[in-house]
Design a protein that fits this description.
By secondary structure, this protein is mainly α. The chain contains 5 helices and no strands. The radius of gyration is 26 Å and the shape is elongated.
Length: about 110
């Protein structure tokens, strides 16, 4: 099935669903041939293969954030905060700076050690 035919098939399906919804219907009836074509199309869709690789820029930004977090932890300890509380606070701030990486605080705490 060529790319153009796939796009046409998806557009046709979108129209059928829109018209059915506009008419107040909740189910869409398809002919067997169209259903088979949709199944074939769905099977050919790319599937996720594990975790996405980390790019070089992300790796550098994470290393910089870890370095800043370690410095912040030392500063908080010097100000009189307990070691564990300072570690958690610094990790929380580092995770907030790295929103695009979607890291958990526990991960950042572990990597800061």
């Amino acid at each position: 099935m060529s790319k153009r035919n796939r796009d046409d098939l998806l557009e046709l399906l979108e129209r059928i669903v829109e018209y059915t919804e506009a008419a107040g219907g909740k189910t869409v009836t398809l002919k067997t041939g169209m259903a088979r074509a949709l199944l074939k199309l769905a099977k050919s869709a790319p599937k996720p293969r594990g975790r996405q690789p980390v790019t070089g820029r992300d790796r550098v930004q994470e290393a910089v954030a870890r370095h800043i977090a370690r410095s912040r932890k030392k500063k908080l300890i010097a100000e009189g905060m307990k070691k564990e509380a300072a570690h958690e606070q610094a990790a929380k701030e580092a995770v907030a700076k790295l929103k695009s990486r979607n890291l958990a605080e526990s991960t950042m705490r572990r990597r800061m050690e």
